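Archive transcription. Copying these from loose printouts into the bound notebook so they stop getting lost. Printout 1 of 2:
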Amino acid sequence: MLTRATILIATFLFAIPLIPVNATSPASVSFTPSSPNADIGGTFVANVVISGASNLVAYDVSVNYNPDVLTSTGASLTGTLFDPATNNVLVARSENFPSVGLVRYAVVIIGGASVNPSASGSSLLNINFNVNDPATTPTATPSEYPSSVSVTSQIVVLDNGNAVTIPSSNTGATYMPPANIGLRNVGCRAVNGGFNVLSKGFNDGIFCRVSNTGTSSIMAVGTFSWHSVGGVTGSTSSAPVALSAGQAGQLDAVLTVANANDIYIVTGTAARAITFHDGSVLAIAGQSNTFKIVVNTGF
């Protein structure tokens, strides 16, 4: 049972104004990993890590993320600097709101003790995340990728027996589904690498051959961009192609060339296609190849 004195101490610690404490640089608070790479439908564990501070006695940390992309399934202090199993810890706040994308913890060590992070940094909080499937998330859109995760913090230390708040710099993270889940680009080229437009027309087929070396089905799409010696630029893409585990396929598109002597430099990219609930597609670029098409208008 919390005593009135304990409650007053906790309230005092989280109401302390910002006072620099014999420090030339702020404490560093970061979300780790900085580039989570779990796949759609997968999970990962992230840590809020602190370094560059000593004699920590309390913190108030908030993590904000896009709930269309990620869902926090829980958070804990186990194994952290403020683990209740090793310190006399009071958890003043432990909030997890997946619907708005917010995790907030406010924690204080009572009894006059403090903790010190390692030189490389130590965890303040562990958070479990699920990666949402955009095909079943009714509000998700391709424009939400890559998706950012932000961190805000208030750090309290003991300085000559006084509890004071020190400055802190915060570093977030960026989530993007991985492109290379079994998708391999075997090669991209043109149907006709050099041709006469008067005799063969103005359209040239371009394609990337791909294979799925993974263990689950994926969607792939070929994206193509080009520029020419004569200053022509453009881009196009293939239709999405489903590839089951171990299956090979071809991603076909068409480049329409001008009726003029020119050399086109084309880059074909095998991209992983993520399909959304409304049928829109997010193409995540993978391996690329560059090739040329030489156009000759003479005979």
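Printout 2 of 2:
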Amino acid sequence: MVIAGVDYSLRGPSICIYNGEGKKFSYKDCSFYFLSDVKKFATYFGQNIIGENFDDFNHEIERYQSIADWAIDILMGCEQVCVEGYAYAAVSNRVFQIAENTGLLKYKLFQLGIPVTIVPPTEVKKFATGKGNADKNSVYAYFEADTNTNLKELFYPMGNGPKEITNPISDIADSYFICKYLFSKIKESL
């Protein structure tokens, strides 16, 4: 089974690809990809995490196109994709840009015949933590416990990272739980 969880955004999209036997969801069967505007994060992190920098763009549409093309390159071969829906309270001033950006990805997935499931952010948080209004720090704490992986040490090996969980760490944790959510829904339907 090859499925994906996508935490799609204008500033820090992240994709988790699960490629496993389908018996049990496991971090070791996942690969993570993200975009960042921080140059030091554009690297292979030696495990299953690859970061890249955003392409340059001259127009917002060009930006949406480059993000969607990046995502489609990664999602090729997936049997199904789950994309986190819009967080309405957080997008009020950029709602149209976010919708155009995400709409382009959904359209490209549709053209490729890849089924897409949309999951509300509150449902992902509840699935991950038991609370639909969990913050980034809580989601990350559950990610750490579920995967036995400390992304803070991976991204900030000298311990000089921010106290709060930020991108791309929070995006990776979100994409992991979006993918795991999709896996659980597929298992329920069998």
